[in-house]
Amino acid sequence: MAGNRPATLGKLGIIAGSGTLPRRLIESCRAKGRDVFVVALRGAAEPETVENVAHAWCRIGAAATALELLRSNGVTELVLAGGIRRPSMASIRPDWRAAKFFAKVGYRMLGDDGLLSAVVKELEIEGFRLIGAHDLLDDGAEIAEGPLGQVAPSAEAAADIARGTRIARAVGGLDIGQAVVVQQGLVLGVEAIEGTDALLRRCAGLRREGPGGVLVKLQKPGQDARIDRPTIGAQTVTLAAEAGLQGIAVEAGATLLLDRDEIIRAADQAGLFVVGVRTE
Amino acid sequence: MAGNRPATLGKLGIIAGSGTLPRRLIESCRAKGRDVFVVALRGAAEPETVENVAHAWCRIGAAATALELLRSNGVTELVLAGGIRRPSMASIRPDWRAAKFFAKVGYRMLGDDGLLSAVVKELEIEGFRLIGAHDLLDDGAEIAEGPLGQVAPSAEAAADIARGTRIARAVGGLDIGQAVVVQQGLVLGVEAIEGTDALLRRCAGLRREGPGGVLVKLQKPGQDARIDRPTIGAQTVTLAAEAGLQGIAVEAGATLLLDRDEIIRAADQAGLFVVGVRTE
């Protein structure tokens, strides 16, 4: 947890993708007086992420440049944060360093998680210490077992959570995605590369009459906890409500809550539950 | 195969859902001089399916009515054909016979395939002989191993077919869906309840640069071959082309081709492959 880390840890490198997580890390470091240097990934990170902070933009394929930027800015500890829409090999235009990496690991044969794990290993070989975003955020970014807000799952929702958990585990084990939507035992949708928001939007048109379904979002089995940790925000709650769901179940101790207070507010207002579950 | 069946088999009952398959069966029986009686499922079968043929409309929940209709019309052999958008328990309004069935099998705990298998078993207990639609159609409705039209998969597409096959097997084993789309090793989408057409439509917006992906559609492992056999038609080819795919792989000997000639014409025209694969 962040509270146990001394403020003298040195400069933190943040490799930033899309969404609000990179900015939250920047602000968390700023509040603790820790220096950061951000490598913003072109086509992924938003411009507002790197406002008023030391940073450089970098293509995903420009690995040599990224490594040089991190080293010349004195980074030793590194965090990967935010989303990356995985590009095809044809569009990635790898520089020599990225090409060497892909030749080693093989691009095609790796799922998202496999590829990210390989990237982490490679960065460790290069001498960086990789940490998880959750280790840099407050304890409030974690979810414990049980309901987060005022609503708890009904018995019917609990049955859908149980089925959704089995399916999300299996689908995650294939390195396809983290999330599924289940209603009355029916699998309405499985997340692949489109992401959770798109999954929820499409499930709005697939819902059956009667009690609404649940979103179950879990860490992939064997996934490196430092990368691509399942994340939900107030937006997830809003979309779940619009899809007619009764609530959201995420993995206790293995999920990042963006804006915990906003999630609770949105869930209570919409009458949805957000619950942390243990899956083993 | 149909050619081996005598024309004196007696009246065929067709329980008809959506799509063109029920009408094809009706026409195939007509060409062979075999009588049919159609139970058209309300909310699933289209009106044109039952034009000029002995039939009655029936709600999905009205099991006693359906059984009575079949018996009083002298049906002993029965085929289930066409799609059914599975309703929620809340909307199914089961009559006493359907309620008895659901009490026995449990609605919630069954996936699509599990539920259909239970329906088939129940119909057999009621004394009907269940046969598969493919047994009533010409040999042309089957696909053998290898390409159907003029285009064959590239080495790259073959790698995506191999990955897609592994994933479709696993996803089918969970009774989620039959189809997946893979591009350059990435799983762009997994079919759940939305069906293959909707999967293809959404993958159009998810494709990466570079060589296009493949649709892999397989029978679910352990699925009763008489029901819900994977089906493709010219529409599948058109949507695959619009999604930027290189082609379609289906299970040899376990797939129904609606309009074989039209599929070949559409595939050759769009430069797509349609290939039968063995998966074991």
Distance between the ends of chain A: 23 Å
Radius of gyration of chain A: 19 Å
Q: Largest sheet of chain A at a glance? A: 6 strands, mixed
Largest interface pair: A-B, 40 and 39 residues
Shape of chain A: globular
- The average pLDDT of chain A is 89
Tally of contiguous helical segments of chain A: 9
Tell me the total number of β-strands of chain A. 13
Give start-end ranges of low-pLDDT stretches of chain A.
Answer: none
Please estimate the helix content of chain A. 25-40%
Question: What is the string of SSEs of chain A from the N terminus onward?
Answer: EHEEHEHHHEEHEEHEEHEEHE
Structural class of chain A: alpha/beta
What oligomeric state is this?
Answer: homodimer
Strand order of the largest sheet of chain A: 6-13-11-9-7-8
Please indicate the percent range of residues of chain A in DSSP E strands (runs of 2 or more): 15-25%
Describe this structure in words.
2 copies of one chain form a homodimer. Chain A is an alpha/beta fold. Chain A has helices at 21-32, 63-72, 89-92, 96-105, 112-125, 155-173, 196-203, 234-242, 260-270; strands at residues 12-16, 36-41, 55-58, 77-81, 129-131, 146-147, 179-183, 186-190, 214-217, 231-232, 247-251, 256-257, 273-277. Chain A has 9 helices and 13 strands. In chain A, strands 6-13-11-9-7-8 form a 6-stranded mixed β-sheet. Chain A has a 5-stranded parallel β-sheet with strand order 3-2-1-4-5, with helices on both faces. The interface between A and B is large, with 40 and 39 residues.
